[in-house]
Amino acid sequence: MAASVTGLLKPWTPRVLLVRWSRYNPYYLEPEPRKEVYHIPETELTPEQKEERELKSVRPIKAATNSVTSSVFNDPVLSKFVNMMMKDGDKIIAKGIITQTLENMKRKQVEKYHKAPEGKKAEIECNPYTIFHHALENCKPVIGLASIQKGGKFYQVPIPLTDNRRRFLAMKWMITECRDNKHRRTLMYEKLSQELLAAFSKEGNVVKRKHELHKMAESNRAYAHYRWW
Amino acid sequence: RCLSGLSKNACQSEQHLGQYYTVPPSHFHTVFPHGLPPRYQQQVKSFNEGCVMVRQPALELISHLKRADYSKPTLRYLLYGVKGSGKTMSLCHAVHYCSKQGWLVLHIPDAHLWVKNCKELLPSSYHASRFDQPIQASNWLRNFRTTNEHFLSKIKLRQRYVWTKRESTEEGRPLGELVDMGVSRVKSSSDVVGAVLKELRLQAGGTEGGFRLAVAVDGVNGLWGRTTLKKEDKSPVAPEELTLVHNLRKMINNDWCGGAVIATLSQTGSLYAPSSAYLPQELLGEEGFDSMDPFIPVPVSLYSEKEFESCYLYYLDRHWLQHPHSQTEEGKKELIFLSNRNPSVLERLCAFL
Protein backbone atom coordinates (compact mmCIF):
# COMPACT_ATOMS: atom_id res chain seq x y z
CA MET A 1 0.00 0.00 0.00
CA ALA A 2 2.84 2.29 0.82
CA ALA A 3 4.30 1.70 -2.66
CA SER A 4 1.16 2.92 -4.44
CA VAL A 5 0.77 5.84 -2.08
CA THR A 6 4.41 6.81 -2.69
CA GLY A 7 3.64 7.07 -6.40
CA LEU A 8 0.82 9.50 -5.81
CA LEU A 9 2.54 11.71 -3.27
CA LYS A 10 4.72 14.48 -4.56
CA PRO A 11 7.33 16.17 -2.39
CA TRP A 12 5.03 18.21 -0.26
CA THR A 13 5.51 19.97 3.01
CA PRO A 14 2.47 20.35 5.26
CA ARG A 15 1.61 23.76 6.56
CA VAL A 16 2.58 22.83 10.13
CA LEU A 17 5.98 21.14 9.94
CA LEU A 18 6.45 18.58 12.69
CA VAL A 19 10.02 17.43 13.23
CA ARG A 20 11.59 14.69 15.37
CA TRP A 21 8.58 12.46 15.86
CA SER A 22 7.77 8.99 14.67
CA ARG A 23 4.93 9.49 12.14
CA TYR A 24 6.34 10.48 8.81
CA ASN A 25 5.14 10.62 5.24
CA PRO A 26 6.36 7.34 3.64
CA TYR A 27 8.25 9.56 1.19
CA TYR A 28 10.85 10.21 3.88
CA LEU A 29 13.96 8.00 4.02
CA GLU A 30 15.67 6.46 7.06
CA PRO A 31 18.77 8.21 8.46
CA GLU A 32 22.16 6.46 8.33
CA PRO A 33 24.04 6.97 11.63
CA ARG A 34 27.11 4.78 10.98
CA LYS A 35 30.31 6.64 10.10
CA GLU A 36 31.90 3.89 7.95
CA VAL A 37 29.27 4.28 5.21
CA TYR A 38 30.32 7.85 4.57
CA HIS A 39 34.02 7.10 4.47
CA ILE A 40 33.86 4.79 1.41
CA PRO A 41 35.50 6.72 -1.47
CA GLU A 42 33.58 7.33 -4.70
CA THR A 43 35.24 4.62 -6.74
CA GLU A 44 34.39 1.74 -4.43
CA LEU A 45 30.64 2.23 -4.37
CA THR A 46 28.50 -0.50 -5.91
CA PRO A 47 25.76 0.63 -8.37
CA GLU A 48 23.05 0.16 -5.69
CA GLN A 49 24.90 2.33 -3.24
CA LYS A 50 25.38 5.01 -5.93
CA GLU A 51 21.65 4.97 -6.63
CA GLU A 52 20.90 5.23 -2.93
CA ARG A 53 23.19 8.23 -2.61
CA GLU A 54 21.47 9.99 -5.51
CA LEU A 55 18.07 9.25 -4.03
CA LYS A 56 19.18 10.65 -0.69
CA SER A 57 20.21 13.92 -2.27
CA VAL A 58 16.68 14.42 -3.59
CA ARG A 59 14.33 13.01 -0.95
CA PRO A 60 13.80 14.36 2.58
CA ILE A 61 15.16 12.23 5.48
CA LYS A 62 13.56 11.49 8.85
CA ALA A 63 15.19 13.05 11.92
CA ALA A 64 17.34 10.62 13.90
CA THR A 65 16.16 9.87 17.46
CA ASN A 66 18.22 10.87 20.48
CA SER A 67 19.12 7.30 21.34
CA VAL A 68 20.91 6.64 18.04
CA THR A 69 24.57 7.77 17.96
CA SER A 70 27.34 7.49 15.41
CA SER A 71 29.62 6.36 18.26
CA VAL A 72 31.41 2.99 17.95
CA PHE A 73 29.95 2.02 21.31
CA ASN A 74 26.35 2.21 20.14
CA ASP A 75 24.46 -1.06 20.66
CA PRO A 76 20.85 -1.43 19.34
CA VAL A 77 19.98 -4.39 21.61
CA LEU A 78 21.19 -2.51 24.65
CA SER A 79 19.19 0.58 23.64
CA LYS A 80 16.08 -1.59 23.35
CA PHE A 81 16.73 -2.98 26.83
CA VAL A 82 17.16 0.54 28.22
CA ASN A 83 13.85 1.59 26.64
CA MET A 84 12.07 -1.39 28.16
CA MET A 85 13.48 -0.64 31.58
CA MET A 86 12.48 3.02 31.37
CA LYS A 87 9.59 4.22 33.55
CA ASP A 88 7.72 7.50 32.94
CA GLY A 89 10.11 8.46 30.16
CA ASP A 90 13.07 8.76 32.51
CA LYS A 91 15.81 7.44 30.24
CA ILE A 92 18.62 8.95 32.31
CA ILE A 93 17.81 6.74 35.30
CA ALA A 94 17.33 3.65 33.11
CA LYS A 95 20.64 4.24 31.26
CA GLY A 96 22.33 4.85 34.62
CA ILE A 97 21.07 1.53 35.98
CA ILE A 98 22.29 -0.33 32.88
CA THR A 99 25.77 1.26 33.04
CA GLN A 100 26.01 0.40 36.74
CA THR A 101 24.94 -3.17 35.92
CA LEU A 102 27.64 -3.51 33.24
CA GLU A 103 30.24 -2.06 35.61
CA ASN A 104 29.17 -4.38 38.42
CA MET A 105 29.34 -7.45 36.17
CA LYS A 106 32.77 -6.40 34.89
CA ARG A 107 34.08 -5.86 38.42
CA LYS A 108 32.92 -9.27 39.61
CA GLN A 109 34.42 -11.02 36.59
CA VAL A 110 37.71 -9.07 36.67
CA GLU A 111 38.10 -9.82 40.39
CA LYS A 112 37.58 -13.51 39.69
CA TYR A 113 40.01 -13.28 36.78
CA HIS A 114 42.81 -11.72 38.79
CA LYS A 115 42.41 -14.20 41.63
CA ALA A 116 42.18 -17.28 39.41
CA PRO A 117 45.20 -19.54 38.79
CA GLU A 118 46.87 -19.34 35.37
CA GLY A 119 45.05 -22.27 33.77
CA LYS A 120 41.56 -21.02 34.57
CA LYS A 121 42.11 -17.44 33.37
CA ALA A 122 41.18 -18.06 29.75
CA GLU A 123 37.77 -19.47 30.66
CA ILE A 124 36.55 -16.45 32.64
CA GLU A 125 34.61 -14.07 30.41
CA CYS A 126 35.20 -10.47 31.44
CA ASN A 127 33.44 -8.50 28.72
CA PRO A 128 30.06 -7.34 30.11
CA TYR A 129 28.65 -6.89 26.60
CA THR A 130 29.28 -10.49 25.54
CA ILE A 131 27.87 -11.68 28.87
CA PHE A 132 24.76 -9.59 28.30
CA HIS A 133 24.26 -10.86 24.74
CA HIS A 134 24.89 -14.51 25.63
CA ALA A 135 22.63 -14.31 28.69
CA LEU A 136 19.85 -12.86 26.55
CA GLU A 137 20.38 -15.64 23.98
CA ASN A 138 20.06 -18.23 26.72
CA CYS A 139 16.77 -16.70 27.86
CA LYS A 140 15.09 -16.53 24.44
CA PRO A 141 12.32 -19.13 24.07
CA VAL A 142 12.29 -21.16 20.83
CA ILE A 143 8.57 -21.78 20.70
CA GLY A 144 5.65 -19.89 22.22
CA LEU A 145 2.03 -20.45 23.17
CA ALA A 146 -1.03 -18.65 21.79
CA SER A 147 -4.57 -18.76 23.09
CA ILE A 148 -6.80 -19.95 20.18
CA GLN A 149 -10.55 -20.37 20.43
CA LYS A 150 -12.06 -23.53 18.94
CA GLY A 151 -15.56 -24.78 19.65
CA GLY A 152 -16.26 -22.42 22.56
CA LYS A 153 -13.09 -23.30 24.47
CA PHE A 154 -9.68 -21.64 24.49
CA TYR A 155 -6.66 -23.87 23.90
CA GLN A 156 -2.99 -23.02 24.47
CA VAL A 157 -1.49 -23.81 21.06
CA PRO A 158 2.28 -23.95 20.42
CA ILE A 159 3.28 -21.45 17.70
CA PRO A 160 6.59 -20.32 16.18
CA LEU A 161 7.80 -16.90 17.36
CA THR A 162 9.47 -14.19 15.32
CA ASP A 163 12.94 -13.01 16.30
CA ASN A 164 11.66 -9.70 17.62
CA ARG A 165 9.03 -11.40 19.76
CA ARG A 166 11.63 -13.77 21.24
CA ARG A 167 13.98 -10.92 22.09
CA PHE A 168 11.12 -8.96 23.62
CA LEU A 169 10.03 -11.91 25.77
CA ALA A 170 13.58 -12.56 27.03
CA MET A 171 14.05 -8.91 28.03
CA LYS A 172 10.59 -8.68 29.59
CA TRP A 173 11.11 -11.80 31.68
CA MET A 174 14.51 -10.54 32.84
CA ILE A 175 13.13 -7.18 33.96
CA THR A 176 10.00 -8.53 35.69
CA GLU A 177 12.05 -11.21 37.44
CA CYS A 178 14.42 -8.58 38.81
CA ARG A 179 11.65 -6.24 39.84
CA ASP A 180 9.40 -8.78 41.58
CA ASN A 181 11.21 -11.84 42.83
CA LYS A 182 14.20 -10.38 44.63
CA HIS A 183 14.88 -9.03 48.08
CA ARG A 184 13.35 -5.60 48.59
CA ARG A 185 16.49 -3.82 49.75
CA THR A 186 18.91 -4.80 46.95
CA LEU A 187 19.42 -2.18 44.26
CA MET A 188 18.26 -2.86 40.71
CA TYR A 189 21.72 -2.99 39.18
CA GLU A 190 22.82 -5.57 41.75
CA LYS A 191 19.76 -7.75 41.06
CA LEU A 192 20.21 -7.42 37.29
CA SER A 193 23.90 -8.30 37.38
CA GLN A 194 23.23 -11.41 39.49
CA GLU A 195 20.45 -12.52 37.13
CA LEU A 196 22.52 -11.87 33.98
CA LEU A 197 25.53 -13.77 35.32
CA ALA A 198 23.26 -16.68 36.27
CA ALA A 199 21.62 -16.68 32.83
CA PHE A 200 25.08 -16.65 31.22
CA SER A 201 25.84 -19.93 32.95
CA LYS A 202 22.31 -21.24 32.24
CA GLU A 203 21.09 -21.16 35.84
CA GLY A 204 18.65 -18.80 37.49
CA ASN A 205 14.94 -18.10 37.37
CA VAL A 206 14.67 -16.70 33.84
CA VAL A 207 16.05 -19.76 32.07
CA LYS A 208 13.84 -21.84 34.36
CA ARG A 209 10.84 -19.90 33.08
CA LYS A 210 11.96 -20.46 29.49
CA HIS A 211 12.25 -24.21 30.13
CA GLU A 212 8.77 -24.28 31.67
CA LEU A 213 7.34 -22.58 28.58
CA HIS A 214 9.06 -25.17 26.39
CA LYS A 215 7.60 -27.98 28.53
CA MET A 216 4.09 -26.52 28.28
CA ALA A 217 4.44 -26.27 24.51
CA GLU A 218 5.69 -29.88 24.36
CA SER A 219 2.77 -31.10 26.46
CA ASN A 220 0.26 -29.27 24.27
CA ARG A 221 1.68 -30.76 21.06
CA ALA A 222 -1.66 -32.36 20.29
CA TYR A 223 -3.30 -28.97 19.65
CA ALA A 224 -0.64 -27.83 17.20
CA HIS A 225 -2.94 -28.43 14.25
CA TYR A 226 -5.32 -25.74 15.57
CA ARG A 227 -2.90 -23.21 14.16
CA TRP A 228 -3.93 -22.06 10.70
CA TRP A 229 -1.03 -19.80 9.70
CA ARG B 1 55.53 0.43 33.09
CA CYS B 2 54.52 -0.57 36.63
CA LEU B 3 57.47 0.07 38.93
CA SER B 4 57.80 -1.88 42.12
CA GLY B 5 56.78 0.01 45.22
CA LEU B 6 59.06 0.42 48.16
CA SER B 7 62.65 1.20 47.35
CA LYS B 8 61.96 3.37 44.35
CA ASN B 9 59.56 5.59 46.24
CA ALA B 10 62.22 7.95 47.53
CA CYS B 11 63.98 8.35 44.23
CA GLN B 12 61.03 9.03 41.95
CA SER B 13 62.00 11.76 39.55
CA GLU B 14 60.90 13.31 36.28
CA GLN B 15 61.89 10.22 34.34
CA HIS B 16 59.10 8.31 36.00
CA LEU B 17 56.44 10.87 35.06
CA GLY B 18 53.36 9.12 33.72
CA GLN B 19 54.38 5.69 34.97
CA TYR B 20 52.55 3.76 37.65
CA TYR B 21 54.06 2.59 40.90
CA THR B 22 52.54 -0.19 43.01
CA VAL B 23 51.73 0.28 46.66
CA PRO B 24 52.25 -3.02 48.50
CA PRO B 25 48.92 -4.35 49.85
CA SER B 26 50.17 -4.39 53.44
CA HIS B 27 50.47 -0.58 53.32
CA PHE B 28 46.90 0.03 52.31
CA HIS B 29 45.40 -0.79 55.66
CA THR B 30 48.07 0.93 57.72
CA VAL B 31 48.74 4.10 55.73
CA PHE B 32 45.32 4.65 54.18
CA PRO B 33 42.53 3.43 56.46
CA HIS B 34 40.42 6.44 55.52
CA GLY B 35 42.16 8.60 52.94
CA LEU B 36 41.42 7.21 49.50
CA PRO B 37 38.51 8.20 47.24
CA PRO B 38 35.76 5.47 47.27
CA ARG B 39 35.96 4.71 43.54
CA TYR B 40 39.69 4.16 43.82
CA GLN B 41 39.13 1.73 46.69
CA GLN B 42 36.73 -0.23 44.48
CA GLN B 43 39.34 -0.23 41.72
CA VAL B 44 41.98 -1.58 44.10
CA LYS B 45 39.61 -4.38 45.10
CA SER B 46 38.84 -5.28 41.45
CA PHE B 47 42.41 -5.26 40.19
CA ASN B 48 43.78 -6.97 43.33
CA GLU B 49 46.55 -4.36 43.50
CA GLY B 50 46.89 -0.60 44.03
CA CYS B 51 48.78 1.42 41.41
CA VAL B 52 49.20 5.18 41.59
CA MET B 53 50.32 7.27 38.63
CA VAL B 54 53.33 9.50 39.21
CA ARG B 55 52.21 12.96 38.19
CA GLN B 56 53.76 16.42 38.08
CA PRO B 57 51.93 18.03 41.10
CA ALA B 58 52.81 15.13 43.41
CA LEU B 59 56.46 15.19 42.33
CA GLU B 60 56.61 18.95 42.90
CA LEU B 61 55.17 18.51 46.40
CA ILE B 62 57.65 15.75 47.23
CA SER B 63 60.61 17.78 46.00
CA HIS B 64 59.49 20.74 48.16
CA LEU B 65 59.14 18.43 51.15
CA LYS B 66 62.66 17.10 50.59
CA ARG B 67 64.30 20.48 50.41
CA ALA B 68 62.36 22.46 53.01
CA ASP B 69 64.05 23.79 56.13
CA TYR B 70 62.31 22.33 59.14
CA SER B 71 63.60 24.74 61.73
CA LYS B 72 61.56 27.54 60.18
CA PRO B 73 57.75 27.88 60.58
CA THR B 74 55.72 25.36 58.60
CA LEU B 75 55.12 25.72 54.90
CA ARG B 76 51.57 25.27 53.68
CA TYR B 77 50.88 23.68 50.30
CA LEU B 78 47.50 23.97 48.64
CA LEU B 79 46.46 21.63 45.83
CA TYR B 80 43.74 23.12 43.64
CA GLY B 81 42.22 22.16 40.30
CA VAL B 82 39.07 21.41 38.35
CA LYS B 83 36.69 18.76 39.68
CA GLY B 84 38.09 15.30 39.14
CA SER B 85 41.62 16.27 38.17
CA GLY B 86 43.36 14.11 40.79
CA LYS B 87 43.89 16.35 43.83
CA THR B 88 43.01 13.71 46.43
CA MET B 89 45.19 11.12 44.69
CA SER B 90 48.17 13.52 44.66
CA LEU B 91 47.57 14.16 48.35
CA CYS B 92 47.55 10.42 49.05
CA HIS B 93 50.78 10.02 47.05
CA ALA B 94 52.45 12.69 49.19
CA VAL B 95 51.07 11.10 52.39
CA HIS B 96 52.48 7.72 51.32
CA TYR B 97 55.87 9.34 50.73
CA CYS B 98 55.77 11.01 54.15
CA SER B 99 54.86 7.84 55.99
CA LYS B 100 57.63 5.95 54.14
CA GLN B 101 60.12 8.60 55.33
CA GLY B 102 58.97 7.98 58.89
CA TRP B 103 56.99 11.15 59.50
CA LEU B 104 53.93 11.23 61.70
CA VAL B 105 50.96 11.69 59.41
CA LEU B 106 47.79 13.45 60.48
CA HIS B 107 45.38 12.69 57.62
CA ILE B 108 41.92 14.18 57.74
CA PRO B 109 40.03 12.49 54.88
CA ASP B 110 37.45 15.20 54.33
CA ALA B 111 36.91 18.30 56.45
CA HIS B 112 33.41 18.63 54.98
CA LEU B 113 32.35 15.49 56.87
CA TRP B 114 32.82 17.43 60.10
CA VAL B 115 30.59 20.36 59.13
CA LYS B 116 27.58 18.53 57.75
CA ASN B 117 25.31 15.56 58.47
CA CYS B 118 26.13 15.30 62.12
CA LYS B 119 23.54 13.35 64.10
CA GLU B 120 24.79 14.21 67.59
CA LEU B 121 25.99 17.63 68.63
CA LEU B 122 26.90 17.78 72.32
CA PRO B 123 27.67 21.07 74.04
CA SER B 124 31.34 20.98 74.95
CA SER B 125 32.38 20.44 78.57
CA TYR B 126 35.64 22.36 78.18
CA HIS B 127 34.28 25.55 76.65
CA ALA B 128 30.70 26.70 77.18
CA SER B 129 29.83 28.05 73.74
CA ARG B 130 31.37 25.24 71.63
CA PHE B 131 29.91 22.00 70.29
CA ASP B 132 31.36 18.51 70.25
CA GLN B 133 30.98 15.80 67.65
CA PRO B 134 31.62 12.49 69.40
CA ILE B 135 31.09 10.06 66.49
CA GLN B 136 33.31 11.81 63.97
CA ALA B 137 36.02 12.44 66.56
CA SER B 138 36.13 8.82 67.76
CA ASN B 139 36.19 7.50 64.16
CA TRP B 140 39.07 9.76 63.32
CA LEU B 141 40.99 8.76 66.46
CA ARG B 142 40.57 5.09 65.59
CA ASN B 143 41.99 5.65 62.11
CA PHE B 144 44.79 7.80 63.53
CA ARG B 145 45.70 4.94 65.83
CA THR B 146 45.94 2.49 62.87
CA THR B 147 48.14 4.88 60.88
CA ASN B 148 50.67 5.81 63.51
CA GLU B 149 51.04 2.72 65.71
CA HIS B 150 54.74 3.01 66.31
CA PHE B 151 54.67 6.67 67.34
CA LEU B 152 52.02 6.23 70.00
CA SER B 153 54.32 4.66 72.56
CA LYS B 154 57.25 6.98 71.85
CA ILE B 155 55.65 10.38 72.37
CA LYS B 156 55.12 11.44 75.97
CA LEU B 157 52.62 14.05 77.12
CA ARG B 158 53.99 17.29 78.53
CA GLN B 159 50.90 18.42 80.38
CA ARG B 160 48.29 17.02 82.69
CA TYR B 161 44.79 16.73 81.19
CA VAL B 162 41.68 16.46 83.36
CA TRP B 163 38.63 15.02 81.63
CA THR B 164 36.04 14.65 84.39
CA LYS B 165 36.15 14.75 88.19
CA ARG B 166 37.60 11.24 88.29
CA GLU B 167 39.46 10.92 85.02
CA SER B 168 42.73 12.56 84.21
CA THR B 169 45.84 11.80 82.21
CA GLU B 170 49.15 12.58 83.91
CA GLU B 171 52.24 14.15 82.44
CA GLY B 172 54.69 11.70 80.90
CA ARG B 173 52.13 9.08 79.86
CA PRO B 174 52.46 7.85 76.26
CA LEU B 175 50.20 9.29 73.58
CA GLY B 176 48.71 5.87 72.91
CA GLU B 177 46.93 5.93 76.24
CA LEU B 178 45.34 9.27 75.40
CA VAL B 179 44.12 8.01 72.05
CA ASP B 180 42.72 4.81 73.57
CA MET B 181 40.89 6.87 76.14
CA GLY B 182 39.41 9.03 73.41
CA VAL B 183 38.20 5.99 71.48
CA SER B 184 36.61 4.35 74.52
CA ARG B 185 35.15 7.47 76.18
CA VAL B 186 33.16 8.81 73.27
CA LYS B 187 31.80 11.80 75.14
CA SER B 188 35.16 13.51 75.54
CA SER B 189 36.64 12.37 72.22
CA SER B 190 36.60 15.84 70.62
CA ASP B 191 38.57 17.26 73.55
CA VAL B 192 41.00 14.33 73.23
CA VAL B 193 41.48 15.26 69.56
CA GLY B 194 42.24 18.84 70.62
CA ALA B 195 44.76 17.61 73.21
CA VAL B 196 46.47 15.28 70.71
CA LEU B 197 46.82 18.09 68.14
CA LYS B 198 48.24 20.45 70.77
CA GLU B 199 50.80 17.90 71.99
CA LEU B 200 51.94 17.10 68.45
CA ARG B 201 52.26 20.77 67.65
CA LEU B 202 54.44 21.39 70.71
CA GLN B 203 56.66 18.38 70.18
CA ALA B 204 57.07 18.32 66.40
CA GLY B 205 60.08 20.56 66.06
CA GLY B 206 61.90 19.33 69.14
CA THR B 207 65.55 18.39 68.76
CA GLU B 208 65.50 15.52 71.30
CA GLY B 209 63.83 12.57 69.58
CA GLY B 210 62.01 15.00 67.28
CA PHE B 211 59.82 13.72 64.50
CA ARG B 212 58.38 15.51 61.51
CA LEU B 213 54.67 16.11 61.42
CA ALA B 214 52.68 16.10 58.18
CA VAL B 215 49.16 17.47 58.38
CA ALA B 216 47.17 16.41 55.32
CA VAL B 217 43.70 17.91 55.06
CA ASP B 218 41.33 17.15 52.21
CA GLY B 219 38.58 19.65 51.49
CA VAL B 220 40.14 22.37 53.61
CA ASN B 221 37.62 24.93 52.36
CA GLY B 222 35.04 23.32 54.63
CA LEU B 223 36.73 24.81 57.69
CA TRP B 224 35.85 28.36 56.75
CA GLY B 225 32.46 28.31 55.15
CA ARG B 226 29.03 27.82 56.64
CA THR B 227 27.80 24.61 58.16
CA THR B 228 24.48 22.82 57.66
CA LEU B 229 24.27 22.02 61.37
CA LYS B 230 21.71 23.72 63.59
CA LYS B 231 21.45 24.27 67.30
CA GLU B 232 18.36 23.24 69.21
CA ASP B 233 16.71 26.58 68.63
CA LYS B 234 17.22 26.18 64.85
CA SER B 235 19.87 28.87 64.59
CA PRO B 236 22.83 27.96 62.33
CA VAL B 237 26.13 26.86 63.84
CA ALA B 238 29.23 28.75 62.68
CA PRO B 239 32.33 26.59 62.07
CA GLU B 240 34.23 28.30 64.93
CA GLU B 241 31.72 26.89 67.38
CA LEU B 242 32.75 23.30 66.63
CA THR B 243 35.67 22.04 68.75
CA LEU B 244 37.11 19.88 65.97
CA VAL B 245 37.16 22.74 63.47
CA HIS B 246 38.57 25.17 66.03
CA ASN B 247 41.47 22.87 66.90
CA LEU B 248 42.18 22.06 63.27
CA ARG B 249 42.40 25.74 62.41
CA LYS B 250 45.04 26.14 65.09
CA MET B 251 47.04 23.35 63.43
CA ILE B 252 46.88 24.98 60.02
CA ASN B 253 48.22 28.29 61.38
CA ASN B 254 51.92 28.37 60.77
CA ASP B 255 53.09 29.24 64.26
CA TRP B 256 54.74 25.85 64.85
CA CYS B 257 57.79 24.35 63.15
CA GLY B 258 59.09 20.93 62.21
CA GLY B 259 56.55 19.78 59.66
CA ALA B 260 54.38 20.63 56.69
CA VAL B 261 50.70 21.23 55.99
CA ILE B 262 49.36 19.82 52.73
CA ALA B 263 45.78 20.79 51.92
CA THR B 264 43.37 20.18 49.05
CA LEU B 265 40.43 22.27 47.98
CA SER B 266 37.32 20.35 47.10
CA GLN B 267 34.13 21.54 45.52
CA THR B 268 32.39 18.13 45.64
CA GLY B 269 31.63 18.10 49.34
CA SER B 270 31.54 21.84 49.85
CA LEU B 271 28.47 23.62 51.09
CA TYR B 272 26.94 26.65 49.41
CA ALA B 273 29.61 26.87 46.73
CA PRO B 274 28.81 26.94 42.98
CA SER B 275 29.87 23.87 41.05
CA SER B 276 32.09 25.77 38.63
CA ALA B 277 34.30 27.19 41.40
CA TYR B 278 37.78 25.71 41.70
CA LEU B 279 40.19 28.55 42.44
CA PRO B 280 41.45 29.07 46.02
CA GLN B 281 40.04 32.59 46.22
CA GLU B 282 36.50 31.45 45.41
CA LEU B 283 36.38 28.30 47.51
CA LEU B 284 38.22 29.46 50.64
CA GLY B 285 36.39 32.76 50.92
CA GLU B 286 37.83 35.91 52.45
CA GLU B 287 38.39 34.53 55.93
CA GLY B 288 39.92 31.27 54.74
CA PHE B 289 42.24 32.93 52.26
CA ASP B 290 43.47 35.35 54.92
CA SER B 291 44.25 32.58 57.38
CA MET B 292 45.92 30.38 54.74
CA ASP B 293 47.65 33.41 53.27
CA PRO B 294 51.31 32.69 52.72
CA PHE B 295 50.80 29.30 51.04
CA ILE B 296 52.39 27.53 48.08
CA PRO B 297 49.69 26.84 45.45
CA VAL B 298 50.13 23.64 43.46
CA PRO B 299 47.77 23.47 40.45
CA VAL B 300 46.60 19.99 39.45
CA SER B 301 45.74 19.84 35.77
CA LEU B 302 43.91 17.27 33.63
CA TYR B 303 45.88 14.41 32.08
CA SER B 304 48.47 15.38 29.48
CA GLU B 305 48.72 13.22 26.34
CA LYS B 306 51.48 11.09 27.82
CA GLU B 307 49.54 10.56 31.06
CA PHE B 308 46.38 9.68 29.14
CA GLU B 309 48.35 7.11 27.09
CA SER B 310 49.75 5.65 30.28
CA CYS B 311 46.31 5.40 31.90
CA TYR B 312 44.84 3.82 28.77
CA LEU B 313 47.62 1.23 28.60
CA TYR B 314 47.24 0.48 32.31
CA TYR B 315 43.53 -0.23 31.88
CA LEU B 316 44.26 -2.42 28.87
CA ASP B 317 46.88 -4.29 30.84
CA ARG B 318 44.53 -5.00 33.77
CA HIS B 319 41.83 -6.22 31.35
CA TRP B 320 39.55 -3.35 32.32
CA LEU B 321 38.74 -2.02 28.83
CA GLN B 322 36.69 -4.96 27.58
CA HIS B 323 34.61 -3.55 24.75
CA PRO B 324 36.28 -4.66 21.46
CA HIS B 325 35.87 -1.19 19.95
CA SER B 326 37.47 0.57 22.89
CA GLN B 327 40.75 -1.15 22.05
CA THR B 328 40.90 0.41 18.56
CA GLU B 329 42.23 3.82 17.56
CA GLU B 330 38.74 5.17 16.93
CA GLY B 331 37.54 4.11 20.33
CA LYS B 332 40.53 5.82 21.92
CA LYS B 333 39.82 9.06 20.07
CA GLU B 334 36.26 8.85 21.24
CA LEU B 335 37.36 8.35 24.85
CA ILE B 336 39.57 11.43 24.61
CA PHE B 337 36.69 13.42 23.21
CA LEU B 338 34.10 12.26 25.73
CA SER B 339 36.27 12.63 28.81
CA ASN B 340 38.31 15.68 27.79
CA ARG B 341 41.23 13.90 29.50
CA ASN B 342 39.61 14.41 32.91
CA PRO B 343 40.82 11.54 35.13
CA SER B 344 37.61 10.86 37.03
CA VAL B 345 35.39 11.15 33.94
CA LEU B 346 37.69 8.76 32.07
CA GLU B 347 37.51 6.32 34.96
CA ARG B 348 33.71 6.39 34.99
CA LEU B 349 33.56 5.95 31.21
CA CYS B 350 35.96 3.01 31.17
CA ALA B 351 34.02 1.39 34.01
CA PHE B 352 31.17 0.33 31.80
CA LEU B 353 33.01 0.04 28.49
UniProtKB/TrEMBL annotation, chain A:
CDD domains in UniProt: uS7_Mitochondria_Mammalian
Tell me the first and last residues of the signal peptide. Answer: none
Q: Residue limits of the Small ribosomal subunit protein uS7 domain?
A: 65-221
What UniProt keywords are attached to this protein's entry?
A: Mitochondrion, Ribonucleoprotein, Ribosomal protein, Transit peptide
- Name a biological process GO annotation: translation
* Subcellular location as annotated: Mitochondrion
Q: Which family does it belong to?
A: Belongs to the universal ribosomal protein uS7 family.
Q: What is this protein called?
A: Small ribosomal subunit protein uS7m
Give the source species: Oncorhynchus kisutch
From TrEMBL, chain B:
Q: Could you state one GO biological process linked to this protein? A: apoptotic process
Provide the protein's localization: Mitochondrion
A Pfam family annotated for this UniProt entry: DAP3
| GO molecular function annotations of the record | structural constituent of ribosome
Keyword Magnesium in annotation: no
Coiled-coil residue spans = none
Q: Which GO terms describe its cellular component?
A: mitochondrial small ribosomal subunit
Question: Which keywords, in A-to-Z order, does the entry hold?
Answer: Mitochondrion, Ribonucleoprotein, Ribosomal protein, Transit peptide
- Main localization category: mitochondrion
Keyword Transit peptide applies:
yes
Family note = Belongs to the mitochondrion-specific ribosomal protein mS29 family.
- Protein name listed in UniProt: Small ribosomal subunit protein mS29
Please report the organism this UniProt entry assigns to the protein. Oncorhynchus kisutch (Coho salmon)
